[in-house]
Design brief:
It holds the Pfam family cNMP_binding. This is CRP-like cAMP-binding protein. The protein is 49% helix and 23% strand. The protein has 194 residues and is an alpha+beta fold. It has a domain of 113 residues: Sandwich (Jelly Rolls). The strands form two sheets. It has a four-stranded antiparallel beta sheet. Strands 2-7-4-5 form a four-stranded antiparallel beta sheet. A hairpin with a 2-residue loop joins strand 4 and strand 5. The longest helix is centred in the C-terminal third of the chain and has 25 residues. 23% of the residues are buried.
Length: 194
């Protein structure tokens, strides 16, 4: 969790050292489940290396909700905070190195950090950035055609297209792999006319 803020909030280095002992560093293969849908989230996950996705099961089909990469952290937030079953599964897509910090220490750390000048303001900024991102994704899913969403992905988050297998991108866009292939083919033809 601290990685989110270390570069812009150097006061955190001492906290990082203090809480390092409570974090479990794991080197894990692709397709490793870090949290299963329906289970209660008790860990905050930070990605040092690799790619992770959040997904849910829809009548036997995996629906990808979000991708996470290096220097990003995640958990099933509602499950983590309210001790309720997670709506999502969290799974690695690449061989990854992650840190897990149990909830007990996350809460203790947040309590300590809340006394650091400027930290709560920073936390609110980060939280609002994430909220705006998710709202934009939700609106785009309703408003935009799959082709538009794919073009937006290429423009704004090309690393996803470069690193994530196509069937997961199709799932993320809400289309079949065949439909995604058609979108890519159409875009390639459009480029060749210029």
């Amino acid at each position: 969790m601290l990685f989110h803020f270390k570069n812009i909030f150097p006061q955190l280095n001492s906290f990082w050292d203090k809480y390092l002992a409570y974090q479990q560093r794991m080197e894990i293969p692709a397709k490793t489940i870090l949290l299963e849908e329906g289970k209660v989230s008790g860990q905050y996950i930070f990605i040092e290396q690799g790619c992770v996705r959040a997904l849910f099961n829809n009548n036997g089909d995996d629906k990808t909700v979000q991708f996470f990469f290096e220097n990003e952290g995640l958990t099933s937030f509602e499950s983590f905070m309210n001790n309720t079953p997670s709506l999502f599964t969290i799974e690695t897509l690449e061989p990854s190195v992650v840190y897990l910090l149990p909830k007990k220490y996350v809460l203790q750390l947040m309590d300590e950090l809340s006394h650091e000048p400027g930290f709560l303001q920073l936390l609110l900024q980060v939280s609002s950035q994430r909220q705006v991102h998710y709202i934009n994704e939700f609106v785009s899913f309703i408003r935009d055609k799959p082709e538009e969403r794919y073009q937006k992905l290429l423009k704004e988050r090309p690393h996803i297209v470069q690193r994530v297998p196509q069937h997961y991108i199709a799932s993320y866009l809400g289309v079949s792999q065949v439909h995604l292939s058609r979108i890519k083919s159409k875009l390639a033809k459009g480029k060749s006319h210029f």
